[in-house]
Amino acid sequence: MKDSASRLSKVEITARGQVFSKEVRFGPRHQTYEEFKVTNEELANKFRHLSSRVLPWSKIDRAVDTVMNLEKVNDVSQLVQQLCTVGIS
Questions:
Q1: Strands 7-15 and 18-26: what pairing?
Q2: How does DSSP classify residue 88?
Q3: Separation CA 32–CA 36 (nearest Å)
Q4: Are 26 and 3 in contact (CB under 8 A)?
Q5: Are 63 and 51 in contact (CB under 8 A)?
Q6: pLDDT tens across 47-63, in order?
C-alpha cells in the first residue's frame, strides 16, 4: 500500500547485460534515516580499506582528499587519474 507521505528509494544497476533494481518505500513514521547515515570519516575508512587491495596508499589518500573537496575540483579527470591502476602514476 502506498502512502502519499512515504518516500521511495530506488537503485538500478546494469551489469553484464542485465538490469538489477530494488525499490524500498519508507513510511512517514520511519526513523529519520539516522540508522543509515555514515560519517565522512567512516566512508573514507571503508574506501581506504577496500581500495588498498588495488591502489597504493599515496593514490588512496589523494583520492580521499579530492572527493572530500570535490567542490574545489575543476576537472574530474584528476580523480579518475587517482583511481586508475594502470599507466598513470
A1: antiparallel
A2: -
A3: 9
A4: no
A5: yes
A6: 999 999 999 999 999 99
Residue with cell 575508512: 45
**Which residue's entry shows cell 589523494?**
62
C-alpha–C-alpha distance, residues 83 and 76, integer Å: 11
Spatial CA neighbour of 26 closest among 18, 17, 34:
34
Closest to 13 (Cα-Cα) out of 25, 21, 2, 5: 21
**Dihedral pair phi/psi, residue 22, rounded to 5°:** -150, 135
**Rounded CA gap, 59 and 85, in Å?**
9
3-class DSSP state of 54: coil
Tell whether pTM > 0.70: no
